[in-house]
Automatic annotation (TrEMBL), chain A:
InterPro entries: 4Fe4S_Fe-S-bd, 4Fe4S_Fe_S_CS. GO terms for molecular function: iron-sulfur cluster binding; metal ion binding. Residues 4-33, 41-71 form the 4Fe-4S ferredoxin-type domain. The keyword Zinc does not apply. The keyword NADP does not apply. This is 4Fe-4S dicluster domain-containing protein. Keywords: Iron, Iron-sulfur, Metal-binding. SUPFAM superfamilies: 4Fe-4S ferredoxins. It comes from Kosmotoga arenicorallina.
């Protein structure tokens, strides 16, 4: 079960890589696909559900591409 | 399991894609200002005065009213707006070529009069939009298109330290220098921007937040290396910290 996850708006992303270096869990990578601007956008790669929802990627993203979701504890 | 949004684009941003280069810190500062406007519930009552420079279209990216001032004249335009409509929150968003070169007189006198406006000052030590010419804030020895052998003090003078110049003026209510290179710095910067807006809302005087920023394109570095260069060189020349704080901490 995931505690948190992120969504990245691939069309807004300009592949600066600041989210990748900011992520303490190392779960963001460059996509092998292109977006319509011609960049390889960042994409979440979290098969082991390591995302904690800290929001560091969101804070460092200069193009406000990232939305962070956290699980609601019941 | 249910999920709820922890972080998402603030409402005060229009959602239009930024026109800045990859890795440019303008976008981070835009987002922090928008979050502050959301948190203080000022979206319908705020006007941005955009500068001349890369951020000349800043009013397009915010979901608030705005205008553009001639080069360097944003504090003068904002003064008129604030005096005509004291009920509104007015802030200017300026770069170092705009504020520290052609607009020095406007900024210093607006600060000295204690105008109730807020200035967000982006210092990237270079003229970004026009192609990387030397700015007043360019570091000694730094190579730009108009100082190809590095800036020399005997020819081009020394870097201008805006915060140190205006900290003695009595009209200044909040003055701080910060950077946005790590998540921790981003949070500190947001705190400062919020305080700068509160200085205006409480009627204390002029407020300015200087944000050290990268310009990966004109520095000729990747976004990652530009951040490293900023940390190693710019923070030595421009010490970070709060210079004036008449707002005080919230209880």
């Amino acid at each position: 079960m995931k505690n948190a996850y992120i969504e990245i708006d691939k069309e807004r992303c300009k592949a600066c890589g600041l989210c990748i270096s900011a992520c303490p869990q190392g779960i963001i990578r460059f996509s092998s696909e292109f977006n319509s601007k011609g960049y390889h956008p960042a994409e979440p790669n979290d098969p082991e559900a390591k995302c904690t929802g800290c929001g560091f990627c969101y804070m460092m993203c200069p193009d406000v591409c990232i939305t962070v979701y956290r699980a609601v504890k019941v | 399991m249910d999920y709820k949004v922890a972080y998402k684009m603030p409402r005060s941003l229009s959602g239009k894609q930024f026109t800045y280069c990859p890795g440019c810190h303008h976008g981070i500062v835009h987002r922090l200002i928008a979050e502050t406007i959301d948190e203080l519930d000022l979206r319908e009552k705020t006007i941005i005065v955009a500068p001349v420079g890369c951020s000349v279209f800043a009013y397009e990216f915010f979901d608030i009213d705005g205008t553009v001032a001639p080069h360097g004249r944003a504090p003068a335009v904002a003064t008129g707006m604030k005096r005509a409509r004291p009920d509104l929150t007015i802030f200017t968003y300026q770069g170092d070529g705009d504020l520290a070169a052609i607009g020095t007189a406007e900024m210093i006198h607006a600060a000295n009069r204690g105008e109730l406006i807020t200035t967000i000052f982006i210092n990237n030590a270079i003229y970004g939009m026009t192609g990387g010419q030397m700015a007043p804030t360019t570091l000694l020895g730094m190579k730009t298109t108009t100082s190809p052998y590095g800036r020399k003090a005997e020819k081009e003078g020394y870097p201008v330290h805006v915060c140190e110049i205006i900290k003695e003026l009595q009209g200044v209510a909040f003055l701080a220098r910060t950077k946005v290179t790590t998540p921790r710095d981003v949070m500190t910067t947001k705190k400062y921007i919020k305080k700068a807006f509160q200085a205006q809302l409480k009627g204390l005087g002029y407020s300015l937040v200087e944000v050290l920023s990268t310009c990966p394109t004109n520095w000729g570095l990747s976004p990652e290396k530009a951040i490293k260069w900023l940390e190693e060189n710019m923070t030595k020349e421009f010490p970070l910290g709060v210079y004036v704080d008449k707002v005080g901490d919230a209880k």
